[in-house]
């Protein structure tokens, strides 16, 4: 079996100090960063991944996804605008170990990393299949939104999927718990 880690949207705007912060976002960035350093250096005891990829919100003009008066369900404050610091990975997270980065949502809302593409146009599902990945672990921000959507799509695409809650953070406890229940019901393991 070939195993990959999918790091979802660990960007400045989703961490403390950003335009749409998730409580604990900077801690998640730090903890994933530590895991990636150990993995990249093949340290003893490092996570056993064959590949590590990331997703990024990458908005140019996502239409009604941005709103002056957001409802925080379908519309949100301006975030992850291309060319801004908010779109960059959090400084606790060194992007160098990523085998590929999948950008999503240039001109529409996009929650799942499976809606994104690499610079050459390859989709996340296509990339994983080309690298013979059968299992994925999903982590990042936010558990109740983009982590949820990415993990659900991973399971739909036929990958054995686990969400790593210790390396993820949710916007709110109630929506996070509902998301985890939905993930379990879809056959996603919660680790």
In which range does the helix fraction lie?
25-40%
Order of helices and strands: EHEEHEHEHE
Please state the overall shape, judged from the principal axes of the Cα atoms: globular
Largest sheet: 6 strands, parallel
Strand order of the largest sheet: 3-2-1-4-5-6
Could you give the distance between the termini?
Answer: 19 Å
Number of structural domains: 1
**Could you list the spans in which at least 5 consecutive residues all have pLDDT below 50?**
none
CATH hierarchy: architecture: 3-Layer(aba) Sandwich
Number of strands: 6
CATH T-level fold name: Rossmann fold
Family: Belongs to the isochorismatase family.
Keywords: Hydrolase, Metal-binding, Pyridine nucleotide biosynthesis
Domain Isochorismatase-like: 4-189
Pfam families: Isochorismatase
């Amino acid at each position: 079996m070939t195993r990959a880690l999918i790091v979802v949207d660990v960007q400045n705007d989703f961490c403390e100090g950003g335009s749409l912060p998730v409580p604990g976002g900077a801690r998640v960035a730090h903890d994933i960063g530590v895991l990636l350093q150990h993995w990249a250096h093949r340290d003893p005891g490092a996570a056993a991944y064959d590949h590590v990829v990331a997703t990024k919100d990458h908005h140019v003009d996502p239409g009604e996804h941005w709103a002056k008066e957001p409802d925080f369900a379908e519309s949100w404050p301006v975030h992850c605008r291309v060319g801004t610091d908010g779109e960059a990975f959090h400084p606790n997270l060194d992007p160098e170990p990523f085998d590929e980065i999948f950008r999503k949502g240039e001109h529409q809302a996009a929650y799942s990393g499976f809606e994104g593409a690499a610079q050459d146009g390859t989709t996340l599902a296509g990339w994983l299949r080309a690298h013979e990945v059968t299992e994925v672990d999903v982590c990042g921000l936010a558990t109740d939104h983009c982590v949820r959507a990415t993990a659900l799509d991973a399971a739909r695409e036929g990958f054995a999927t686990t969400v790593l809650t210790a390396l993820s953070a949710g916007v709110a406890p109630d929506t996070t718990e509902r998301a985890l229940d939905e993930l379990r019901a879809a056959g996603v393991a919660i680790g």
